[in-house]
Design goal:
Blueprint: E1 2-6, H1 10-19, E2 24-26, H2 29-34, H3 39-50, E3 55-59, H4 65-78, E4 83-88, H5 91-103, E5 107-112, H6 115-124, E6 128-131, H7 133-138, H8 143-156, E7 162-165, H9 171-179, E8 184-187, H10 189-194, H11 199-216, H12 218-226
Parallel strand pairs: 1-2, 1-8, 2-3, 3-4, 4-5, 5-6, 6-7, 7-8
Helix pairs in contact: 1-3, 4-5, 5-6, 6-8
Length: about 230
């Protein structure tokens, strides 16, 4: 299962990439605008932080299929490494995904709210779909259930498209989509940090160290660290 950072903040990406098993970074226009930096240099800096192999997801801004395709080509030619183009699941977006599939340009279908959104995108050739879990919940839907139904449809009909769930407000939602069989999640840096945020962990570590030092003394730590 993939774990992807949903951010364009260089320092947060650098920290998470150093400490955690990160598979890539997703961005969107709103996330990039928050950084208040020129967008192409920012994307290139993200690439330099995560390396060439990990996936960098970049969203097309155009609305017409032909323009989306042109933008996708430009982004793929301008940015190095493993770049995936995010395309909204509009009618024009589905058409663009189909064309990009023919050209061998990988895509993620974004703004997915229903299983049928995801089904059409997968049939068109999308490599990923990104259902918006919390946004679906906010519209009186059930985001986790939507993710579960998408994964079932893909499995039953042998669709190779992966479900990369997005839009989370807490770790419990991430936990629930994992149980639902999602192929990956993309989430904010804060929630990735919270995945190990249990108070008992630090308490246990401190207890282990105290009991060791009580018997063997501080000198033992120096011996261990120099071996």
């Amino acid at each position: 299962m993939q774990l992807v950072i949903d951010s364009a903040n260089i320092e947060k990406i650098r920290k998470l990439n150093e400490y955690y098993p990160i598979d890539g970074v997703t961005t969107n226009p709103s996330i990039i605008v928050k950084e208040q930096k020129p967008f192409l240099p920012l994307l290139k800096e993200i690439r330099s932080v995560i390396g060439e192999e990990k996936e960098l997801f970049v969203q097309a801004l155009a609305e017409k299929a032909e323009d989306i395709v042109k933008e996708a080509r430009y982004l793929r030619n301008t940015l190095s490494g493993n770049v995936v183009i995010k395309v909204p699941v509009t009618k024009e977006g589905i058409k663009a995904i189909n064309q990009l599939k023919v050209e061998g340009i990988p895509t993620l279908a974004t703004t997915v709210y229903t299983p049928m959104n995801a089904f059409l995108a997968a049939k068109a050739g999308a490599d990923y779909v990104a259902p918006y879990v919390n946004r679906i919940d906010n519209l009186s839907g059930n985001g986790v259930n939507v993710v579960s139904e998408i994964t079932q449809i893909f499995l039953r009909h042998n669709l190779s498209c992966k479900v990369l769930a997005a839009s989370f407000k807490n770790v419990q939602q991430i936990h629930n989509v994992c149980l639902a069989g999602v192929h990956g999640v993309t989430t904010a840096p804060e929630l990735i940090e919270e995945m190990i945020g249990h108070p008992s962990i630090e308490a246990n570590v401190k207890q282990f160290k105290k009991e060791w030092l009580d018997l063997y003394g501080e000198e033992s730590m120096n011996l261990i660290s120099t071996k």
